[in-house]
Amino acid sequence: ETGVTQSPTHLIKTRGQQVTLRCSSQSGHNTVSWYQQALGQGPQFIFQYYREEENGRGNFPPRFSGLQFPNYSSELNVNALELDDSALYLCASSGWGGSYGYTFGSGTRLTVV
Amino acid sequence: QKEVEQNSGPLSVPEGAIASLNCTYSDRGSQSFFWYRQYSGKSPELIMSIYSNGDKEDGRFTAQLNKASQYVSLLIRDSQPSDSATYLCAVSGGGADGLTFGKGTHLIIQP
What are the φ/ψ torsions at residue A84 (nearest 5 degrees)? Predict the structure, then answer.
């Protein structure tokens, strides 16, 4: 059984640029959710994808967008990067509604300069 | 606005003692409750999940849920230095809700 994998592990971008982060879900899981974790804070829910559609969203602006593919893997795209977007980005896979629990990937550390 | 509150600590506990971590949540519709352990620079690791009132035990860990009081706790028995980490409480209403996390409690086990 494969776990949740994220790529890349680290990334440095310039303010105003765009970034794409990738996540593969755990075998048997069909839902992917994304979280942003600033230093010293708990993860904040960005959005969730199920059956290739966004079906839940936290308090994040539209420049945060995503995709889910038929194999349940997912992408997080962030446009017009701001310095405050610097954080650890985590994806979690689960069954629908959190069934089987939420399994997190190792995260992508994004630094915006 | 759904909120999860935790004491940020640090909580210092002698090795071999019981560590008690607490969490309150604001949304009465919450259905699923989780405790994650996070080491510095790493991603959260699921320790316990609990879905109904009462206690749930797994090895040295016991999760307790009281929906009437909107309160979740985690007990760690026979604390070990390797238990030193930040413990995140997370809740979900199910469906498309995702997880709402607290800020975490930094636990230090003193040898």
Answer: -70, -10
Does B105 score more than 80 pLDDT? Answer: yes
Q: Are B44 and A105 in contact (CB under 8 A)?
A: no
Whether residue A56 and residue B49 make contact (CB cut-off 8 A), yes or no, is no
Please tell me whether the peptide bond between B10 and the residue prior to it is cis, using omega within 30 degrees of 0.
Answer: yes
Extract the tokens encoding A52.
């290739």
Check A104 against B4: CB less than 8 A apart.
Answer: no
Contact A43 B102 (CB under 8 A): no
Q: Is there a contact between B103 and A97 if contact means CB atoms under 8 Å apart?
A: no
Show the low-confidence residues of chain A (pLDDT under 50): none
**φ and ψ at residue B44, rounded to 5 degrees:** -65, 140
Per-residue pLDDT of B55-88, as tens digits, reads: 999 999 999 999 999 999 999 999 999 999 999 9
Please list, in sequence order, all residues whose beta carbon lies within 8 angstroms of the beta carbon of residue B57, skipping any fewer than 6 positions away: none
Interface of A with B (CB under 8 A): 33, 35, 40-45, 47-48, 50, 55-56, 58, 88, 90, 92, 96-98, 101-107
Cα diameter, chain B:
43
Residue A26 is given by DSSP the state: P
A-chain residue closest to B94, CA distance: A97
Residue A83, helix vs strand vs coil: helix
CA B79 to chain centroid, in Å, comes to 15
Cα dist from A78 to A43, A102, A104, B23, B33, whole Å: 17, 23, 20, 32, 29
